[in-house]
Design a protein that fits this description.
282 residues; alpha/beta; Spore Coat Polysaccharide Biosynthesis Protein SpsA, Chain A; two-stranded antiparallel sheet; 13 strands; 28% helix; 23% strand; globular
């Protein structure tokens, strides 16, 4: 991957620079979150896809580079992972926009973290994109953020809760007015019973938002997954396998959230971040 990008004229320094120590010690930052058995978690930001619902804006740039508040959209998930104590981050994006994404994020030094980049050659779904992170994970747990998801408050408490799990996965839920746009969780008193992808008749209003946390079993689950009727590997199928195993825990999003995937939700994302000067509330 590094060789591919070097051939495109992207400087080697972007891949070798180390984080800025001063930023890592900034007040309010969580220490790197350890998982049971030792080792810190790694972060994955998925920023591929075509962004067709935001055309014609996405005819000239990647959706995740559109401005939200005062910054490019993709800067928000970077901040979220950093605040959760995760500083080793893989960014997955499309081949058409990799250069622009690297130009925006660089090595990670400006954010106090370190980036690795991977190309998703085809739009094969969220689980397909996540599969590119298996080698990067080095056997550690991963916290996965979709690059267009905007959270008013820090996800750090949820990452800490996941660190306390012996095994399994964790997802975040948010009650929404249009659940048919999302994966929807059916709940009993304590557990997720099932997750249904974009149902015509949702069984609840609890959307599964774009923040997923997985142990090392996720890679085998993805390899065993079959494409959906859309020809994609669905993250909902991955999450439902954890449901079947009785290993999927969940938490509820605090404050406002949006996925910034439509013009209406992009407007909401701007409102959330402009109100807070692009800061993540803790």
């Amino acid at each position: 991957m590094v060789c591919d990008l070097l051939s495109r004229g992207i400087p080697r320094s972007l891949f070798l620079a180390r984080p800025m120590v001063g930023y890592l010690s900034a007040p309010g930052r969580c220490p790197a979150t350890a998982r049971p058995g030792g080792g810190t978690m790694k972060g994955v930001i998925l920023a591929g896809g075509l962004g067709t619902r935001l055309s014609p804006l996405t005819e000239i740039t990647n959706k995740h580079l559109l401005p939200v508040g005062k910054e490019p959209m993709i800067w928000h998930p970077v901040k979220q992972l950093n605040l959760a104590g995760i500083h080793d981050i893989l960014v997955v994006t499309s081949i058409a926009h990799m250069g622009d994404v690297v130009n925006s994020l660089g090595s990670g030094a400006r954010f106090g973290c370190e980036f690795t980049y991977r190309v998703q050659d085809t739009a094969g779904g969220i689980a397909h994109a996540l599969a590119l992170a298996e080698g990067f994970s080095s056997g550690r747990r991963v916290v996965v953020l979709l690059g267009d998801n905007i959270f008013e408050h820090s996800i750090a408490p949820h990452v800490e809760a996941f660190a306390g799990q012996v095994s399994g996965a964790r997802v975040l839920l948010k009650e929404v007015g249009d659940p048919e746009r999302f994966g929807v969780a059916a709940l009993d008193e304590m557990h997720i019973v099932a997750i249904e992808e974009k149902p015509a008749h949702p069984k609840s209003s609890h959307a599964v938002v774009g923040c997923y946390m997985y142990d090392g079993e996720v890679w085998g689950i993805i390899r065993a997954a079959l494409p959906s009727s859309r020809g994609e590997l669905e993250i909902t199928d991955v999450n439902n396998e954890y449901v079947r195993r009785g290993q999927l825990q969940y938490g509820f999003v605090n404050g406002r959230w949006t996925d910034a995937g439509t013009f209406e939700s992009l407007t909401q994302a701007n409102e959330i971040l402009l109100a807070n000067d692009n800061k993540v509330l803790t």
